[in-house]
Amino acid sequence: MHQSKKIGQLSTRGDKFSLYTTSYGDHFDTQVVFFHNLGEYHDRYKDFAKFLYSKKVGSIFIDMRGHGLSSGTRGHASSCHEILEDYETFFEHNVDLLESKDVFLCGHGLGALLCMSLDNYYNKLSGMILVNPLVQYSESMDTGVHKYFGKQSLFEKLKITIPMNSISKHHDPLVNRKMTLGMQRSISELIKRVKYSSYFINIPVLYVMGQEDQVVDLALSELFSSSIDTSLMMLKKYPSIGHELFNEPQREIPFNDICNWLALT
Fold first, then answer.
1. How far apart are CA 6 and CA 143, in angstroms?
2. Distance between CA atoms of residues 77 and 62, nearest Å
3. pTM
């Protein structure tokens, strides 16, 4: 797999930021474009990339602005539109690569919201994989900072702890443990944006839920999934897996289910 690894730097619109991209197996007919979770970056998903490669599925990871090896203030975005524009730029620059492929989007947590916001932008998708979508924080993860949202200029880069318990257990210096108020507001914008998007999804969806997820409101997430066209949606629930599905000890079980779904879709 490592021989097929390719890394790149992609300039965003206006050349303000540089996004770090990593791909494995771009010669395969099936490609998964991956959107990582808040605070994470490409290397946290290397086991998933390796598993996909073993099944002859290629993968592309883009570090979000302010995350991993991409440039920008750590853990910061001023609005969801900035983040979405970055990924739109990725698709604009990779039209030739993806043109002849079966392309699937896959997102984890925050990344799943990005998938649902971009599915209409790139209209040649074969399907979406939504893993523990951050459709709503659980009550225990509420940051309580909404009262500052109207004071953008004053508190834009105020740092707050990322409300995800699993991240604090890792010592990787490229994992963000803090985010800005601007990023939290961007997430709230994305949550509002996708609130009704499930009714308009018109491609196959694999909806993956870890039943031990302490970050996402599971009841609301399952309710959200039920609004997706049943002829397009497959729901998979894993009783002993939490929010960090891609790094859980039992991760190969959902990995295998994802690859089986890709093969049948």
1. 37
2. 15
3. 0.92
